[in-house]
Amino acid sequence: xxxxxxxxxxxxxxxxxxxxxxxxxxxxxxxxxxxxxxxxxxxxxxxxxxxxxxxxxxxxxxxxxxxxxxxxxxxxxxxxxxxxxxxxxxxxxxxxxxxxxxxxxxxxxxxxxxxxxxxxxxxxxxxxxxxxxxxxxxxxxxxxxxxxxxxxxxxxxxxxxxxxxxxxxxxxxxxxxxxxxxxxxxxxxxxxxxxxxxxxxxxxxxxxxxxxxxxxxxxxxxxxxxxxxxxxxxxxxxxxxxxxxxxxxxxxxxxxxxxxxxxxxxxxxxxxxxxxxxxxxxxxxxxxxxxxxxxxxxxxxxxxxxxxxxxxxxxxxxxxxxxxxxxxxxxxxxxxxxxxxxxxxxxxxxxxxxxxxxxxxxxxxxxxxxxxxxxxxxxxxxxxxxxxxxxxxxxxxxxxxxxxxxxxxxxxxxxxxxxxxxxxxxxxxxxxxxxxxxxxxxxxxxxxxxx
Length: 451
Description:
The chain is mainly α. About 80% of the residues lie in helices and about 0% in strands.
């Protein structure tokens, strides 16, 4: 159907489904290792060690702050022409950071100050590993996946990351019981070894299959870092997309730390019941990802801005779900909270996969910049937004409860702000994920694929 390419560097057809799944295994490994630091160690610090919850929360926020270096790491993988080394190296640094964080947690039980200092170093390594490995993996995916498969590829890799988090949480939870610090260290070491090995196996000879679905400049020398950032900032579509990612991810993450407290304070749910509610939210996210992965691929294959409607609809459905939660805050028991949270998750899943698919398309639309630095800029924007979003939601509820002296009104205010942020994100998405930039991405892809 299509003529073969003349250039030897563009003879590959790009990633097939097996290759996409292999990158998904990398994402699953990253998710599993991050879970140890953000979930298991968080609980140990607060419950077993009796520390203030602000201590692990601050360490998690710090690992997001470190990810401001994502553009640098993405640019380095562009210039090195070997993203595999950055992926494996990043996951290895992440694994080392997880082991150090575990050791630091154990040390804090007897010597808090040295333990906390070691924890800061450990979470710095975690942030650097996630940034370097994750950015390079997404850049490899963006350059090697044909436009028609981008939504499905985003869905597969994101679902596998969530699966990695869930599977590792269940496994680690079973292995550390009955709990002891020695058993925790042993399990953390085993998890690190397995995930680094899995990443090395998943990426073995993978990069040579990528083909060229990225920008036309990918065969030339990558520009220096300052020039690359300047191009991205002066490119209207890239600048708009950066702002869109920041606003939408703040809206996406604001309810992370307040949804279960909301269920307990307003609906009187037990910890077990509120945990199940979180599971309904994740189920909605999963369904949204699957639907968008299938439907979004069909649309994106027919028109350059085909994912835009999915991004906008995901934002609008998320906003509707949050607005309904605002009503639930006043209605209290009797409100169909489970259905409400499922619908919110559905909108979140649709938005997340469509946004990542659009991101992969725009990553290949640069005149000179390559995918790594562009993914890095958007990854840094996402990391900052995640850190600020969770903190803003939690602090906002605390301040509103104190000012309004009414829990229902406080949660309604915060959910209303979050819904408004998603509406703003929908407006930003209309311009950020359509138009000339997406058409340019498709043209570049077709030129590189078909000659």
